[in-house]
């Protein structure tokens, strides 16, 4: 496995549940853009597959661990990894702090983790292994009422939550606002909760994203259309040293969708 083979596998898995990402990718390529990713984001519950287990396949290919983060309001811890090859995206992995969930939600997640096959955590394809458990739609809804993150992971399992385009490497858009306007013109809906653009030049990072696609998901009792993934766009600014900022900031970290979106798509 090479870094580009792993990223290719992640991308194919991601666009299978997020077709808008492939359409946007093609639209930008048709303008002559060569798209470079800023980061890919993955999620986990902790337990036998924590941040370290999910990072292992990336570390084996040369990604090096960088800063840790705590997003208290979303009950998450996170870390990112960077590769010596600047063409390769950063890898952002977050983990839900299960101890901060309600007893009811915690019990549902424990029951999912209990279904993990032996040795699952050691799979070389863990970052795109998919969903190794069954759950009822009511369990998904219970999780969703408390944490969009917990519900998404229950429904989709181990795979990329989003790819993020590096806006600074685009040649035909002066800034993130111009890219956002282009996407809206082409019929894409952007996530506007808390404003279209999260973050600021002062924070050295601005990000926007599409609204999540929705796809049919098989639950143990029925199949339902639920939000899958969004496509994200990031513009980075230099630090006083002149070097580009490569970290993440809470105000522009991975966004949530409103739970009322479920069933309306
Ligand atoms: Ni992100």
Please describe what this structure looks like:
By secondary structure, the protein is α+β, with helices and mostly antiparallel strands. The protein has 7 helices and 10 strands. Helices cover 29% and strands 23% of the residues. Helix 5 runs antiparallel to helix 6. The radius of gyration is 18 Å and the shape is globular. The N and C termini lie far apart (37 Å). The site of nickel (II) ion has 7 residues, from strand 1 and strand 5.
Main sheet strand line-up: 2-3-4-1-5-10-7-6
The coarse overall form would be globular
Instruction: Indicate the structural class.
Output: alpha+beta
The top level CATH class name: Alpha Beta
| Uncertain ranges | 253-265
Share of residues in helices: 25-40%
Note the topology.
Blueprint: H1 3-17, H2 19-30, E1 37-44, H3 51-59, E2 63-71, E3 76-83, E4 90-96, H4 103-113, H5 137-146, H6 148-156, E5 160-166, H7 176-185, E6 198-200, E7 205-209, E8 214-218, E9 223-227, E10 232-236
Parallel strand pairs: 1-4, 5-10
Antiparallel strand pairs: 1-5, 2-3, 3-4, 6-7, 7-10, 8-9
Which structural traits does this protein have?
265 residues; alpha+beta; 2,3-Dihydroxybiphenyl 1,2-Dioxygenase, domain 1; eight-stranded mixed sheet; two-stranded antiparallel sheet; 7 helices; disordered C terminus; binds nickel (II) ion
Give a brief outline of the structure.
The protein has 265 residues and is an alpha+beta fold.
């Amino acid at each position: 496995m090479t870094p580009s083979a792993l990223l290719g596998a992640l991308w194919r898995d991601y666009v299978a549940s997020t077709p808008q990402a492939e359409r946007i990718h093609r639209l930008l390529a048709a303008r002559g853009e060569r798209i470079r990713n800023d980061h890919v984001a993955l999620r986990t519950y902790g337990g036998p597959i924590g941040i370290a287990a999910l990072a292992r396949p990336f570390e084996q290919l040369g990604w090096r661990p960088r800063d840790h983060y705590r997003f208290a309001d979303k009950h998450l811890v996170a870390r990112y990894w960077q590769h010596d090859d600047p063409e390769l995206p950063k890898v952002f992995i977050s983990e839900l702090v299960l101890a901060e969930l309600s007893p009811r939600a915690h019990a549902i997640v424990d029951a999912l983790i209990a279904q993990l096959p032996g040795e699952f955590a050691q799979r070389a394809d863990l970052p795109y292994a998919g969903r190794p458990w069954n759950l009822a739609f009511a369990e998904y809804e219970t999780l969703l009422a408390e944490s969009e993150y917990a519900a998404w992971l229950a429904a989709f399992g181990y795979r990329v939550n989003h790819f993020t385009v590096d806006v600074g490497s685009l040649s035909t858009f002066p800034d993130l606002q111009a890219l956002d306007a282009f996407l809206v013109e082409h019929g894409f809906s952007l996530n506007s909760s808390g404003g279209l653009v999260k973050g600021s030049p002062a924070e050295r990072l601005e990000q926007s994203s599409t609204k999540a696609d929705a796809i049919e998901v098989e639950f143990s009792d029925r199949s339902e259309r639920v939000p899958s993934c969004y496509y994200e766009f990031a513009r980075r600014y230099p630090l006083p040293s002149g070097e580009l900022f490569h970290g993440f900031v809470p105000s522009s970290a991975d966004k949530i969708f409103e739970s009322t979106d479920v069933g309306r798509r």
